[in-house]
Amino acid sequence: MSEAGFSPQAAPSVRLGLKENWPQFALLVLINAFVGGMVGIERTVVPLIGAEEFRISSTTLVVSFIVSFGVVKACANLVSGQLADAWGRKRVLVLGWLVGLPVPFMIIAAPSWKWVIAANALLGINQGFAWSMTVIMKIDLVGPKSRGLAVGLNEFAGYLAVGVTAFLTGYIASEYGLRPAPIYLGVAYAVLGFALSILLVRDTRDHVRLETAGHARQAAPISFREIFLLTSFKDRNLFAASQAGLVNNLNDGMSWGIFPLFFVSFGLSVERIGILKAVYPAVWGILQIATGPLSDRWGRKGLITAGMWVQAAGLLLTAATSHFEWWFVASVLLGVGTAMVYPSLIAAVSDASHPSWRARSLSVYRFWRDLGYAIGALSAGVIADLYGMAWSIGLIGAITFLSGVLVAIAMEARPGARR
């Protein structure tokens, strides 16, 4: 049964708010740290596995694992909201972990690059289902007043785990090699995330019923096609958020695949590459504790616009320099800019969506956002093969700046929640 058809009556004991639901909220924060850690095991070592162990000389082919990840994750995001409404959030979360369990074992055992690509397709499903559900369930729990805070804490946990894991895998790889030792972290994350999701997580659809009861009824149910068109193009705020999300992950997909190869071309060690790959998501993760609540107080538009421009500055600085110290500063800028953007975008989509179709609108936004991984990795790989990696990084930086301009023009400063 879909949320659109829910009765407005909720269970008497159900209440909205972070304080009222903190045990489940904290559990979901922990679980999303494990979700993020699954991506973190790949940020430093997997591009280097392709280049050094499998002797792949084409940058485009090396980043193909990100393309498979991005396309599959985008499609998983697109259906995750529908499945969450039909099956319940918990079931989709558990399914995401079930699909993710084989991923670290496939990377450890991979006899060819095709295995890594296949593992990343499964990782895309894991991330599309599990990360989507942790976001949606937190938003369900806290209600409309603290969406930015809820998203900020969720993304803090996920991306701090990405950064910490990227650093740890770089350090472990410098001591014990690219495989299998660094990937054992992924085994622990997958097992713990799966077990906690089955044993301790409770569904949150009663919280949605309670919030829906406080909203005006819609004249007629809204179809998924209508939601897709609204989120993608027709609603100016949802369109602005969707394009910014796509470009944000376009530059993240580029940095995931290109940065390790770019840094190693200047003779940087795997351990120092691990530091650079850790700083960006760690700063991104930690600052979202502040930027999420700030978007509740200041509005979403200014943080999103400025955040895209700060990211662009970090990318252009990376392309223009050739020393670790400048790359470190650029990585910090990337982290700061992304922290400004990421929770604000999800909260902006939630603001502009009715509770009865919010999960589906978020799934469409996350479809466009995570399609950026594939577009960014593929376009960056092609540009790098034709003109060099510095040109690839610089052009993606220019696109990121223009996306911020589009947000400044199209998005309303303080859009009201859609009724």
UniProtKB/TrEMBL annotation:
One Gene Ontology cellular component: plasma membrane
CDD domains found in the cross-reference section: MFS_MdtG_SLC18_like
Subcellular location, record wording: Cell membrane
Superkingdom, taxonomy of origin: Bacteria
UniProt keyword Membrane present: yes
Segments passing through the bilayer: 25-41, 61-80, 92-110, 116-137, 149-171, 183-201, 326-349, 370-387, 393-411
Stated name of the protein: MFS transporter
Organism: Bradyrhizobium centrolobii
Lineage: Bacteria, Pseudomonadati, Pseudomonadota, Alphaproteobacteria, Hyphomicrobiales
